[in-house]
Design a protein that fits this description.
Chain B: It is a multi-pass membrane protein. The complex is a heteropentamer, with one copy of chain A, one copy of chain B, one copy of chain C and two copies of chain D. By secondary structure, chain A is α/β, with parallel strands linked by helices. Chain A contains 19 helices and 13 strands. In chain A, the strands form three sheets. In chain A, strands 1, 2, 3, 4, 5 and 12 form a six-stranded mixed beta sheet that branches. A four-stranded mixed beta sheet of chain A has the order 8-9-7-10. A three-stranded mixed beta sheet of chain A has the order 6-11-13. In chain A, helix 1 links the parallel strand 1 and strand 2. The longest helix of chain A has 17 residues. Chain A is globular. Chain C has a domain of 172 residues: Orthogonal Bundle (MetI-like fold), CATH 1.10.3720. Chain C is 69% helix and 0% strand. In chain C, helix 12 runs antiparallel to helix 13. The chains are: A alpha/beta, B mainly alpha, C mainly alpha, D alpha+beta. The structure holds adenosine-5'-triphosphate (ATP) (2 copies) and magnesium ion (2 copies).
């Protein structure tokens, strides 16, 4: 808590990330403390988002929540629904440092829990993209993917690249990987984006078409590594080793991919459905403040610093994040022409088309269970029709679950 | 001294596999020898190898060069063993800080565990029969409470005590002797000390605490050794308590660090195995020191051997 | 020092109670720790089971038996109970048999015996998280040593963690290795048996197998029961960290053991009160199994 | 040495010690009545042997004197002072247990020092006393050994030495010879006696071996079922047992007891007793019998004879008899050596 | 009963049993040479007592006969047949251990049935034999108890009963009386003897108690340091010990041995022995001494005397002497009872 002595205030910041990300946050905290000698920050990192949830629940339940914590937009609904988060809207409105218009509207919209007031400050604006191995494309005589390429182009390239222990594409079977394809095809993954009551993978024809296309990659065309192969060597490891043509991931992968020195690689937008839109899915984490603490001032000053140019640049330099501040995102600090990927603008080009999944209190659970069942279908462990039906059926009750006073 | 040797021989018994069976079997010498060697060495060696195998895979897996896909056939040793994975570990995380924190926690928690378990076990020894039975039922109930039931609610206690984000919550299991099982281990061992010894010491003016410290504890050193090893393993491997009750990154312990590692690349096996080796090594070393006594044919005799 | 002239009124039993008092005094630190760190939190937790506490706010409301109602229609909970029961039914006997069998086999003094015992104990020192990571590797369908071993016998192996039944077997297999504690206890107990009894039995015509069946096992019965009870609790409640890391409930809830589900509910899904209720169920299940075990072996005179 | 009864000891702290007096001592363990009104007086400096069958309450008496248990009723006086409220270690009492209760993890020297260490006796003083005691008991060259490296007899002496270093007013010895083998028991018995002569400290020695009781004590106290049956000098108790229990308990083989007198002659309503050594083989003896067995003991033999009326008698005889089982023999009771007891109460008439 | 030596037993399976013959038996445990060429012959039906100090190898002999250990050299013959290759349970040998080795988890009845159950004796037959044996040893009313609910003497009888149900050719008893108290030992000794008379089975009885050895056996075998020192009827061994070891070992108090003869008269280079009972108090005796101690045993007393030249002698005397320590006494050796041994080898001359 903010148990400060007369001169300095202590705040605790809980974040998640891998070792390298944490180093980035560390240097940002140091820069902040240099500028604000009256605030001392305890940086409290955890590895996974699961660990983060455990940490946050314990400290909220124990009455000692952190001042600032980082949450993915797919999880904050759970907290927001119970009023555990102090909305930042009023702070942002009063701020002399930050201005709402500096930030990506798509990212901000994702964090308006009631659709109106801003709940948390999104710090990044990542999205799903395609990383591809230029050397493999060259060897196969394929053109590099470009803006607006279509599903068929993608499939053709993937098939061409698949041979022996080489696979054309790597993608994790999960809702957030599947969703942009559905949206691109004009479908929806839930019946109502604001008050969803069920997944719509089977009932909406456009959705179903996209789902089948996605599943066919593995089940029919075999351009995605099968189950056992994926467990033995992740797609990322394959891509690093140069035996995977294309790899779907968000910006997160970049620091790791930068360790590649055996071949050239770049990033491309998602392929577009026939006659569809170049949609992608938002990946964004935001700084939230705990509700009910006596003094939010220090916490807000930390967020201000992190969201301001200086803070955003420090993180952008790690290569891992796409800054949510559009001015920083457009600056060399992010675009960095001397380090791969050359085409970082791809992340920014898609910004107007970014969409987000529902942000209800139980969404993270829905996603979790769906992913487990989708994996069963994707790797052919269960029959496709049966599997998808089961997926919808078993997940449907989760939409109705009440968490706190939400939904009543 | 003949008396002594015979006594200790009787104490260690003649287990069925040993001397007795050897002379019992009445088959022809050749077959008997074959069966004998098989029973005495081949089968145990096979089982021992089976149990050692996962550790072996762990070590050899960590010695493979990074980035290469693992072999698809069984290999006893990687073709070009390398320590590359180990040198990468400290680059990826503050390995030595984590190790230092873990060491500090263990250095405090293990003695505390031994003292609490020892005191409690001795207390049980002193109680009357009926009281003892009641305490044992109580211990069973304590054992019954799932750990998950207290994780979050304990935080409240720690917050009220103002010890969140210190190492003190990590000592909580030590104050609980890690598990009632360790207390039982002590109670059981203390049961072997004859009543007359306690009374003799009382007569000589020793307080119960002095009796515990000077008489009881020194006599159950194998139990202490066992408790210490088990406690070491527990505290060293403790993942949940640091996750929930530690906040400052620079106080983190090794298991939390291992978690960061897993996130980096879930199939970078050499790196993961190296992390596992580092996490396991201290426990293994501690245990290897203890096994000399703990697992010898006659632990008491082995202890005495160390004493002279 | 002179003796007091008059005896105080309650002279009798003071010497005895001096000892009893000391006994309780020795138990006091532990008792205090139990009260503060287990009893209090656990009671709090039981209280929460009948509220709408989510873990994120601090004003839980009493909602009566709503959570119980929810429990009755929760298919995940049903899966979870089934997974746990399967696990206990398979894992506990196997772990016991392994620990007891190995301890008895390796108890006899023999050259190098210590190293055989050490090998059996060693997997027990592997930290939980490391054990799980290690088994992710061991059970790997393509590179995993287990499938490669099966390959030597011409079997194509399994995709262990992908299939519900093999995933369960995989977890059981993993937990079959850290049996060192039971192993060591049986070893110690076996050493304390009187070698003379075995000679007497041999003289009466009892072979090694008969000695095992008629002497060793009945004599070790109290220890075995203690281990069974402890292992039941451990398997149901504590051993979940490796399972959590290895499979995290997948596939198809096959390994969604109760503690994993409790953890998910309490810490991931903001179902703090609901998790508290499942915790109570878990305790009841555990206690039931233990009582059943104790009743089943009542005639062995272990409580003598 | 701190507190306790040191004041009751005389000058050099070596001779005499304190007398013990038990008054109406009673004690029950649950429903078992271990002691049932025991009165006993042990003058300072005397060695008294408590003898009785197993379970008769001998150990309980010692435990009450030492303060390890509290009596349900009655008083314990040491040196004339009621020690009811004194904890064990302030009673200036040293006890030697049947199993010696040596501390197995300590060397002999450390065993001797243990008590003084916990009582904070200065180091030099403690070592001096330990070495003194060791020398006195002839174990000076065992000081570095551990208990399990010694023979029973050696352990026994260490246990005694540990009692000696306390310089107590009273020694309580609970069957200290029971776990020694026959040969060793005899020599250690002599050592014990010698020690008592040297120190002259009040000593209560418990045994269930009647031979030990006879040879050791200035006085012997026969205990049975929680009561003192008889006390007195050994020979006196042997010669004039107060009842049939004592008569049979002391002496081996035990006294022949014939209800109603039978072949020994006597009134009905009485039991007549005759010790085996008082029954002689005599070709003209009045008692006709046939030999049943002859147990040869080297220096003597025990003849088991069955009289014509079926009474069995044992007689102690010369060793080199040529009597075979079945032979007819004649016996004579040495006159004046008959004991008469009441058939109802068993008490001596 | 399966296999083994039943053939060697005669008709009714009750009398005689099989003779035992040990030839040049030797056995080492590590560096300890437990047996060093033991030759022994036990005729069928005889009861032989093995006696010797602790560690002399008595138990080892039994273990080799039973087949619990294998000899390093030499042969064991039972009923004339080399049993070297037979496992213990085919040797038709029953053993009673010093600590009884009753199965603590079984009731007395189950203890008795145990061996017959593993040997697949029909149920009814087994129960009959168990009840028979129990009746024979007077433990019929203890059948439902567990070993920890019985006294030492009762356990002892159960152990014997367990041996009896086997109906073996040979009984091996390893100090079965050692853990009993003195009173119980005497009565159980008688029971044992009676049992042997009834069954007439070859029996080897081990003890370190010389009194037991003297009274029990048809023959006594004295073992020392892994060798048989002497064997023969008890009285013969007592009267003519072959060396000083046997001389001192049998008899209590032990024989007086005076190197060079001294006050007893004799040549140098010899040791002269005299049993305490052969040394009489005699006012005109040639040996002047002063009394050191008198141990009264009720029926007799032992006088410890120190002669003028410092030699200590013990004499067995009348009980009611009025001699005090320090009194001057005169002693006389009964002529013809002197034993002479070679001073170098200790062997009888
Ligand atoms: N702690 C105890 N709890 C219950 N009963 C006891 C206890 N101590 C002694 N007794 C009982 O009190 C009686 C007297 O016991 P005590 O030990 O004084 O006998 P003892 O004469 O010393 O016998 P022994 O010669 O066998 O040592 C016995 O019946 C015994 O069973
Ligand atoms: N299992 C064994 N291992 C090592 N030494 C042994 C073993 N058994 C006996 N010995 C040694 O062999 C010698 C003879 O032992 P044994 O048990 O035959 O003696 P004993 O005459 O029966 O003695 P006691 O009267 O003490 O029983 C002793 O020195 C003993 O220490
Ligand atoms: Mg006693
Ligand atoms: Mg022996």
């Amino acid at each position: 808590g903010t148990t400060g002595s007369a001169s300095t205030t202590d705040i605790t910041v809980v974040l998640f990330g891998d070792a390298e990300e944490i180093t980035g946050y560390q240097s940002m905290v140091e820069a902040f403390e240099d500028e604000n000698s009256d605030i001392s920050v305890t940086l409290s990192p955890v590895a996974t988002q699961d660990d983060l949830m455990a940490r946050l629940t314990t400290s909220f339940a124990g009455g000692n929540p952190p001042d600032v914590f980082l949450l993915n937009f797919r999880r904050y609904g759970q907290f927001a629904a119970q009023g555990a988060i102090e909305p930042v809207q009023s702070y942002l409105d009063d701020s002399e440092v930050l201005d709402e218009s500096d930030f990506s509207p798509r990212a901000l919209d994702a964090f308006r829990y009631d659709g109106d007031e801003l709940t948390c400050m999104p710090q990044n604006l990542s999205s799903l993209v395609v990383y591809y191995n230029e050397d493999l494309f060259d060897a196969a005589g394929l053109p590099y993917p470009e803006q607006g390429w279509a599903w068929d182009d993608f499939l053709a390239a993937a098939s061409e690249l698949t041979s022996g222990d080489h696979y054309g594409a790597g993608v994790a079977p999960s809702i957030i990987r599947l969703a942009p394809f559905v949206w691109s095809n004009g479908g929806e993954i839930v019946d109502d984006a604001d008050r969803p009551t069920t997944l719509t993978l089977t009932r909406d024809p456009a959705t179903r078409e996209a789902v089948d296309w996605f599943l066919d990659l593995q089940l029919v065309h075999g351009v995605v590594p099968p189950d056992a192969e994926e467990q033995s060597e992740s797609s990322e490891a394959r891509f690093l080793r140069g035996t995977l043509g294309m790899y779907f991931n968000s910006r997160v992968a970049v620091p790791t991919l930068r360790t590649i020195d055996g071949f050239e690689w770049d990033v491309a937008p998602l392929p577009v459905a026939p006659g569809g839109e170049p949609v992608s899915i938002l990946h964004s984490d935001a700084y939230c403040m705990s509700a009910g603490l006596p003094d939010q001032d220090a916490a807000w000053r930390f967020i201000e610093f992190a969201m301001n140019t200086g803070g955003q640049e420090i993180l952008a330099e790690s290569g891992r994040t796409v800054p949510s501040r559009l001015d920083v995102a457009g600056s060399p600090a992010f675009l960095e022409p001397d380090l791969p990927p050359r085409s970082s603008h791809v992340y920014l080009d898609v910004e107007p088309y970014l969409r987000a999944t529902p942000r209800t209190a139980t969404w993270s659970r829905v996603e979790r269970e769906s992913n487990a069942l989708l994996e069963e279908v994707f790797y052919g462990r269960v029959d496709r029709e049966e599997g998808l039906r089961q997926l919808e059926d078993s997940v449907r009750p989760l939409f109705d679950l009440q968490v706190g006073d939400d939904g009543s | 001294m003949t008396q002594t040797t015979r006594l200790s021989a009787a104490r260690s018994g003649a287990p069925p596999g040993g001397r007795v069976r050897e002379s019992v079997s009445g088959r022809r010498p050749g077959t008997r020898r074959a069966v004998h060697v098989l029973g005495r060495f081949a089968v145990p060696a096979l089982l021992a190898a089976l149990f050692a195998a996962p550790l072996w895979f762990m070590v050899t897996g960590s010695l493979r060069p990074a980035g290469l896909p693992p072999p698809r056939t069984l290999e006893i040793l990687p073709p070009e063993p390398t320590l590359a994975a180990y040198t990468r570990l400290p680059e990826l995380m503050p390995l030595f800080t984590y190790l230092g924190n873990s060491a500090l926690v263990v250095a405090i928690a293990v003695p505390v565990t031994v003292v609490v378990a020892g005191l409690t076990g001795f207390g049980i020894r002193l109680l009357s029969r009926t009281a003892r039975r009641r305490v044992l039922v109580g211990l069973l109930v304590v054992l019954l409470v799932p750990v998950t039931a207290v994780w979050a609610t304990r935080f409240e206690v720690f917050r009220l005590a103002g010890v969140v984000d210190t190492f003190i919550p990590l000592l909580a299991p030590a104050l609980l002797a890690v598990s009632p099982f360790l207390i039982l281990l002590y109670a059981w061992s203390f049961g072997g000390i004859p009543e007359s010894q306690l009374q003799a010491a009382r007569l000589e003016g020793a307080s119960w605490l002095a009796i515990w410290r000077r008489l009881a504890m020194p006599q159950v050193r194998p139990a202490t050794l066992a408790v210490a090893v088990l406690a070491f393993t527990f505290h060293w491997a403790n993942f949940i308590d640091p996750l929930l009750y530690l906040h400052s990154g620079d106080r983190y312990t090794l298991p939390l660090g291992l978690q960061f590692l897993r996130l980096l690349n879930p199939t970078d096996w050499p790196l993961l195995m190296a992390g596992c080796v580092i996490a396991t090594l201290p426990c293994a070393v501690v245990f290897l020191f203890a096994q000399r006594i703990l697992l010898s044919d006659d632990p008491l005799a082995a202890l005495r051997g160390g004493r002279r | 020092m002179t003796a007091p002239e008059v005896a105080p009124p309650d002279t009798p039993r003071r010497a005895r109670s001096d000892r009893t008092l000391s006994g309780w005094a020795f138990l006091a630190p532990y008792g205090l720790a139990v009260a503060v760190l287990i009893a209090l939190p656990a009671l709090l937790n039981v209280g929460y089971a009948f509220t709408d506490h989510t873990g994120l706010t601090r004003d839980p409301q009493f909602i009566g038996l709503d959570n119980v109602q929810r429990l009755t229609s929760d298919t995940f909970f049903r899966d979870s109970v089934e997974a746990s029961l399967f696990h206990v039914a398979v894992s506990v006997p196997l772990r016991l048999i392994a620990a007891v069998g190995l301890a008895l086999l390796l108890a006899a003094p023999r050259p190098g015996g210590r190293w055989f015992r050490t090998a059996v104990y060693l997997p027990t020192v592997i930290p939980d998280v490391a054990l799980a990571v290690l088994f992710l590797w061991v059970l790997n369908p393509l590179y995993g040593p287990l499938n490669q071993l099966l390959g030597l016998f011409g079997h194509s192996g399994f995709n262990w963690l992908a299939d519900p039944s093999t995933a369960r077997v995989g977890v059981v297999l993993m937990l079959l290795f850290p049996i060192g504690e039971g192993f060591i206890v049986v070893l110690a107990a076996r050493r304390m048996l009187d070698g003379r009894l075995y000679e007497a039995a041999a003289l009466e015509g009892c072979g090694p197998f008969g000695q095992l069946r008629r002497l060793t096992l009945p004599l070790l019965a109290p220890v075995l029961i203690l281990l069974a009870v402890r292992d039941t609790i451990l398997t149901l409640q504590v051993n979940f960290v490796p399972a959590y890391v290895l499979t995290d409930g997948r596939p198809a809830n096959a390994t969604l053991y109760l503690p994993v589900y409790i953890f998910d509910q309490a810490f991931e899904f903001s179902g703090f009160a609901y998790a508290a209720l499942i915790t109570i169920v878990l305790m009841v299940i555990t206690a039931t199994i233990i009582v059943a075990q104790l009743l089943a072996v009542r005639r062995w005179r272990i409580l003598r | 040495m701190s507190g306790g009864l040191t004041g009751a000891r005389n000058g050099d702290g070596r001779s005499g010690g304190a007398g013990i007096r038990l008054e109406k001592l009673s004690k029950s363990y649950g429903r078992v009545r271990a002691l049932d009104g025991v009165d006993l007086d042990v003058p300072a400096g005397e060695l008294v042997t408590l003898v009785g069958p197993s379970g008769s309450g001998k150990s309980t008496i010692l435990r009450l004197i030492a303060g390890l248990d509290r009596p349900d009723g009655g008083r314990v006086l040491v040196g004339g002072q009621d020690v009811g409220e004194l904890p064990p270690h302030r009673r200036s009492v040293a006890m030697v247990f049947q199993d010696y209760a040596l501390y197995p993890h300590l060397s002999v020297l450390e065993n001797l020092l243990f008590g003084m260490r916990v009582r904070k006796v200065p180091r030099a003083e403690a070592r001096r006393r330990a070495h003194d005691a060791a020398a006195r008991l002839g174990i000076s060259d065992l000081l570095e050994r551990h208990p399990d490296q010694m023979s029973g007899g050696q352990r026994q002496r260490v246990a005694l030495a540990r009692a000696v270093v306390r310089e107590p007013s009273v020694y309580l010895l609970d069957e200290p010879l029971a776990s020694l083998d026959a040969q060793l028991r005899i020599t250690t018995r002599a050592d014990l006696l010698a020690l008592h002569r040297q120190l002259g400290t009040t000593t209560v020695h418990v045994t269930h071996d009647q031979a030990e009781a006879m040879t050791l004590g200035d006085r012997v106290v026969v205990v049975h079922e929680g009561r003192v049956r008889q006390e007195g000098p050994p020979q006196e108790v042997y010669d004039e047992p107060v009842d049939t229990f004592v008569a049979r308990f002391l002496g081996s083989p035990p006294m022949n007891l014939v209800a109603g007198g039978g072949v020994l002659g006597g009134e009905p309503e009485t039991i007549v007793g005759l010790r085996p050594e008082d029954l002689a083989l005599d070709a003209d003896g009045p008692i006709e019998a046939s030999a049943e067995a002859v147990e040869t003991l080297g220096n003597e033999a025990v003849l088991l004879a069955r009289c014509l009326d079926g009474t069995r008698l044992t007689a102690r005889t010369e060793p080199r008899l040529r009597i075979r089982p079945g032979d007819a023999v004649r016996l004579r009771a040495i006159p004046g050596r008959l004991h008469r007891f009441d058939a109802g109460t068993g008490r001596r008439l």
